[in-house]
Amino acid sequence: MLPTKAVIPVAGLGTRFLPATKVIPKEMLTVVDRPTIQYIVEEVVASGIKEVVLVTASGKSVIEDHFDYSFELETFLAQKGKMDLLNEVRHISRLIEVVSVRQKEPLGLGHAVNVTRQVIGDQPFVVCLGDDLVESEQPCVYQMLRVFEKYQESVVAVQEVPEEDVNRYGIAEGQEVEPSVFQVDRIVEKPQPGETSSRLAVIGRYVLRPEIFDCLDRTLPGIGGEIQLTDALDTLRKERKLYACKFQGNRFDAGDKLGYLQATVHLAMDHPDLGPAFKRYIKEIAEKL
Ligand code: UTP
After folding, report:
1. Ligand 1 centre from 102 Cα, in Å?
2. How many CB atoms lie within 10 A of CB 197?
3. pLDDT, tens digit, for every residue of 183-234?
4. Which residue has its alpha carbon closest to ligand 1 atom 21?
5. How far apart are CA 113 and CA 251, in angstroms?
6. Ligand 1 centroid vs 204 CA: distance in angstroms?
7. Rg for the chain (alpha carbons), in Å?
């Protein structure tokens, strides 16, 4: 059985991106021509997912509105004969069915995933972080679902990071069982220098079996006083197997100011309309550096 639902937690406070995120959720910040969250929803739709479960908090309703019909706007565009814009706006509201679950306090990513238990039930599901963008030929979630399909066990997405960045991520250790697929022996959140020799950093894409909910129930607050999904995954891999998929593609942390700028430049260069002119501009300024 393949997952049909993707959980996208968007209830965090986005403190790394203040003051931009004081009022506007970081998931609604524009990268080139659409909000970050739309790239993520487009990725899950392109991977065959039919329903999105948003984990929201106060001040985040604008995200739900973005994927809803806008009667006033659609009527206005239709009356003005602006059919291209109308189609674009309709495309967004028809992308996916959205269900929202409220996380009443930002107690961590693990807690955010755990509040979706009633909606997910006893089936595997996908989790995509609302601020992690992956640019790839085959959608990252699609690549992970192929691994899940084969092994029928939970899968995390990993990328190799330089040694000096290891302490910023959840790090997976394991054996490569086929090219780019690892069976995880241990997973540790933000390890101290010398605590691990692995450089496989877990990024914001997961395919999870429903047993993760029981593991989350037993997970105590960890680093930063938050309920860490990484800690629950380490319990899960002891009780069942856990795989890591080294996906093909570029990942950007759009919840971080530098990562956001990098995502903007990369995606603008690859944009079908803007790309050629933007690349010329980048070349021009690069020559002046
Ligand atoms: P982050 O740690 O990147 O998000 O969590 P944050 O807490 O909003 O950001 P900073 O560190 O303060 O800048 C990754 C994802 O998990 C969600 C966030 O919205 C983000 O998409 N999240 C995090 C929740 O939904 N609930 C939480 O309690 C924590």
Report:
1. 14
2. 9
3. 999 998 899 878 999 999 999 999 999 999 999 999 999 888 999 999 999 9
4. 130
5. 21
6. 11
7. 19
In the predicted model, is pLDDT for residue 289 greater than 90? Answer: no
- Residue pLDDT, tens place only, 106-161: 999 999 999 999 999 999 999 999 899 999 999 999 999 999 999 999 999 999 99
CA of 13 to the centre of ligand 1 (A): 6
| Alpha-carbon torsion, ordered 124, 7, 167, 106, to 10 deg | -130
Residues with CB under 6 A from ligand 1: 9-17, 55, 103, 106-109, 111-112, 129-131, 255
Ligand 1 pocket test target in 131, 226, 228, 258 with most atoms within 8 Å of CB: 131
Beta-bridge partners for 7: 53, 127
**pTM for this entry:** 0.94
**Which CATH homologous superfamily contains domain 5-288?**
Spore Coat Polysaccharide Biosynthesis Protein SpsA; Chain A (3.90.550.10)
Q: To 5 degrees, how large is the angle CA 174–CA 214–CA 114?
A: 95
pLDDT at 262: 97
Contacts of 15 (CB under 8 A, 6+ apart): 21
- Alpha-carbon distance 19 to 266, whole Å? 24
Query: pLDDT at position 68, please?
Result: 87
Which of the listed residues 21, 22, 129, 190 should we mutate to test ligand 1's pocket, taking the one with most ligand atoms within 8 A of CB?
Answer: 129
How high is the pLDDT of residue 1? 85
